[in-house]
Design a protein that fits this description.
Blueprint (H helix, E strand, L loop, with lengths): L2 H22 L7 E3 L5 H7 L1 E5 L6 H4 L7 H14 L8 H16 L2 E2 L4 E12 L4 E12 L6 E6 L11 H15 L4 E8 L2 E11 L2 E6 L3 E2 L3 H27 L1
Parallel strand pairs: 1-5, 2-9, 6-7
Antiparallel strand pairs: 3-4, 4-5, 5-6, 7-8, 8-9, 8-10
Helix pairs in contact: 4-5, 5-7
Length: 250
């Protein structure tokens, strides 16, 4: 048994143990939903969430003119060259190590000056009046260096394709948790299926009421799309810095 399989099995065992513990607990009658397993049908049971089709909401985000250097171009061309014919057969860890992390590292989601960074496999929990979201998130950019204090941006999930699970409702559950924990009205994220990225904006409308917007697809094995993915992530970084500086002034 290889290490990756062992880690996956251990993660599943721990999640099952946690579910059994919660089922046996008499302290709370609220249903508990794991981020890694939630489905659209589950979300529809517990919150009012509607998908909207207005693509103009992404205009400011996708219109960001972040710095793009010749070195960025060289690195991204190499990512495509080394992975294009393999990516459809990559497992979760292959995809993460060979494609996703090199792009995220190029963005540099870490600032000692502004005290935020990227977190992998971050435990997160949000408790509402009638349900609980909990589990381990794939990737979060959050305020804080030693521990997450305020999640700003989520990516879900490093899977090869959607036959294993649908990352979109999992991302939406994380975004709902983030927007509620931050006491904000809007939050952004992305989900990845193989080479394809979708960016998402979630807005809070009221108590357990939300709407969300899903972008067009970006193919990370096409240089123009990968360049856009990179710039979209740079916008998130700049927005986080602006938000932190605004909080300091307040």
């Amino acid at each position: 048994m290889n290490r990756e399989l062992e880690e996956k099995l251990l993660k599943q065992i721990l999640e099952l143990q946690e579910e059994i513990k919660n089922l046996n607990s008499k302290e709370s009658s609220k249903p508990i939903y794991q981020y890694s397993r939630i489905r659209d049908i589950d979300l529809d049971k517990i919150v009012d969430i509607q998908k909207k089709l207005d693509s103009k909401i992404f205009d400011k985000w996708f219109g960001y003119h972040g710095k793009y250097t010749q070195e960025d171009e060289r690195i991204f061309q190499k990512i495509i060259r080394d992975n294009e014919i393999l990516i459809d057969d990559y497992n979760e860890e292959d995809l993460k190590v060979n494609v996703i992390i090199p792009v995220l590292n190029r963005v540099e989601f870490k600032s000692f000056e502004n005290e935020f960074r990227d977190f992998y496999e971050l435990p997160l929990q949000y408790e509402a009046n009638n349900f609980i979201f909990k589990g381990t998130t794939d990737f979060v950019v959050s305020k804080g260096l030693l521990k997450s204090q305020k999640p700003y941006f989520f990516i879900q999930e490093f899977k090869r394709n959607e036959e294993y699970s649908n990352p979109r409702p999992q991302l939406l559950a994380e975004l709902i948790s983030g927007v509620e924990l931050n006491k904000k009205s809007e939050i952004k994220g992305a989900y990845i299926v193989g080479a394809i990225w979708h960016f998402v904006i979630l807005k809070k409308l009221g108590l357990n009421r939300y709407e969300y917007f899903v972008s067009t697809r970006f193919d990370s094995m096409r240089i123009d799309d990968l360049k856009m993915i990179f710039k979209n992530l740079l916008f998130i970084k700049s927005e986080i810095i602006e938000d932190i500086l605004t909080d300091i002034k307040i």
